[in-house]
Amino acid sequence: MLKPPLLKELSQIVGQANVFTDAEELVVYSYDATRVSSLPSAVVRPSSAQEVSDILRLANREQIPVVPRGAGTGMSGGSVPLQGGLVLSFERMNRILEIDEANRMAVVEPGVITGDLQRAVEARGLFYPPDPASQQFCTLGGNIAECAGGLRAVKYGVTRDYVLGLEVVLPTGEIIRTGSRTLKNVAGYDLTRLIVGSEGTLGVVTKIVLRLLSLPESVRTLAAFFPDVGSAAHAITAILSGKVVPRALELIDEGSLAAAGNYLKQDIAGGARAMVLAEVDGASQTTEREIAVVEQACREAGANSVTRAEEQADRDRLWKIRRSISPALYTIKPRKRSEDIVVPPARIPDILAQIQVIAKRHGLTIVNFGHAGDGNIHVNILLEDEEQSAAKLAEQEILAAVLGMQGSISGEHGIGFSKADYLPMETGAAALEAMKKIKRALDPNNILNPGKIFINAE
Prior knowledge:
This protein is an alpha+beta fold.
């Protein structure tokens, strides 16, 4: 608990109405999508970089943990206040400050909902490609913290590819500005990219300059259904080895299809055991040719059926299936361990086969779906409470297999606390120590999001 004098100081910074300490209010800010909960001592809602600076100076002086928080949609525990302290919520810093059409960029505050920005720029013929599945409620500040990817990363890349500059408050209270409003900038170390993906451990982002693109003229979408996941995986490989670069290329296995069908109360698969969802964009003539190439690759790989989405309503229906999978999995079993592994795309058939072997060995239900176009598969170990030990062993074996295929243990969810045990497996001791040195240099009292990424930052 924070002492009354400290609460009074916080109220003087942000106003009494923006400091929460009641138990029922604290619960709302105690968890994320991992479903792990830890109560903070207080929640503070700043409205400016200066207020954030004043809060961090106070916290640094008193050595109080501070956890930045967007919408709490993270999958690795990044916004869970493991050590109590302050949750810094950005609900009030939610303005789109500028859309610069001439230079194709936007300036936003961290609390802006990703989907709101996308709609605002598309109304002006512009395009912000990063497309996390939670886009309708996740925030851009959270996307920055985790370097969110999403459905369109196979063609357009991830969040860091669109961040030109940041305003950041360091753990000790200094306000710095990184990058610029230009596409090229090599003036000193790239602090922008250091902050993007740092999971709120190195600084608090208070303003974001984002690069925009021109809105594509045409979008074409299709769904292909397969007799088994191996055939679907080989279709993915065939598409990627051709000359078409889809803007989205998703793989959905039998378990995911069944869960989504139960959740949406409709027969999605029609007896099929895997689905590929593909989308291309660009000029109208180009997209018509490219979607035909994708369809041919699916049919040659053994697709039972291929359906093109001719109307926007058809596209929306297909993407609703994909976006419903994660919550739908809880209709199968009450708990899950979610991994967001990445392998070189050509190794997708190999890792899926290995996951099936691991699932059988441990007697577990494991379902897979995700961004197969860039090798990023969401592996979900579904379990009852009594299966926790087996799930932990399976998780270790899956991540070891991923690293054996020169992949990564996390493509977009981040490390948080849920994967901190496994980070040394990928980085090695020397690289891990280099990361810790950066953390200690910027955050000497370890107040900013402690307990995340590293088991111990000391």
